[in-house]
Amino acid sequence: MLSRIADSLFWLTRYMERSDCLIRVVRTNYILSFDSSSHTDFSWKDVITLFAHTNDEAVLQAGESSSSALTFLVADSKNLNSMKVLITKGRENARGVQDNITKEVWEQVNQLYHLVNQPDLDDRITGTRSLETIDLLDQSCTLFYGVTDSTMPRGQGWNFMNLGKFIERSILTIDTLNAHFSKIDHQLNAPQDILFWKNLLLSLSGYELYLKNYTRGQHNLNVIDHVIFNKEFPRSLIYSLSRFRLYLDKIADDTKMEGSAGLQKTLGRILSKVQFADINIIQEESLPHFLSSLRKDLVDFSNQLTRIYFSYA
Asked: Which CB contacts under 8 angstroms, 24+ apart, belong to 142-149?
């Protein structure tokens, strides 16, 4: 497979995964903003900080109201991490590799592109049909994964798509977990109840599974265990990194690229950080240090991967 094709498939799913995470966080925050029983301190400004990666007060002003936040996060072309921009970038990558994806995958990406480029999107996302529009975008992202999973052949293209998906998911999970724990200054023994963590768990589609698995113990520590170490939770770090290693091993075996063995060892060390850690180790090391170190390793690894497989300078 040409490096250009592999690169486009890799970034197609990275952009789609980022869009999926964004719209889920937006939906969760929007619904909980009307729930008087939810006393989470997570705000629209926090969502903008999470996805725009900025503390610029001029940018954060968009988070002062739901309507301005929704416009900025979903429909603002000037925001490079808005859903509109992310889906447009995903479509650009998909358009260049139409021979390597199925017709159904292309049609679903194209449908999403037209949804976020509707002339009246600003009005729809802030008017009386806000939740209906958010739900439609959320369901369309979910449908992309269903169509991709049920129609894509399990070859190199599929493997590169999953590399993009799971490295993006790992980084987003770290960022989302860190953002919510920062609201309590990463104090693991702080007496927070389940309502405080509802926003985080719903944002990661892990609320129901959490309630089924954790019936006792301190919620702060249980949330860490769930989001980092739960092998049955599809958005946990351990699950995402394990899947990432599976697809990297397949690509390394298929391509025999120089540097692949070193790349596999690097990922093995990153995965071991999570596999052989536990709550006690995180408490000793501190949660922000553990997460920031792991995030840096993943970003460095991603850069190394793109140099080897996509011929980046």
From this structure: 142/20, 143/108, 144/16, 144/20, 144/105, 144/108, 144/109, 144/112, 145/16, 145/20, 147/102, 147/104, 147/105, 147/108, 148/13, 148/105, 148/108
